[in-house]
Amino acid sequence: MRSHHSLTRREVFQNLANRILYSKFYMILYLVMAILSVWSIFLSFQQGCSSSSLFIVLESIINGTMIAEVAVRLTALGRVS
Q1: What does the pLDDT read at residue 81?
Q2: Which of 1, 22, 25, 39 counts the most CB atoms within 10 A of its CB?
Q3: In angstroms, how far is CA 42 from the centroid of its own chain?
């Protein structure tokens, strides 16, 4: 039997997402993402948006991280059930 003072699963995930959102790791992640984005723009100008494997991998990392960031932010705000 659960106590009425225990956290629900949703609250646990929301608290975890908030801890991630306001952590030093998250700030460093944003800095790395900014550097990778500038590098991606530089590569696209230098190589003319060619389909080089480096450009595709870099864009995949950037997009995957952005999707994860949106998921964490939505969870922290309680928008995900």
Answers
A1: 58
A2: 39
A3: 22
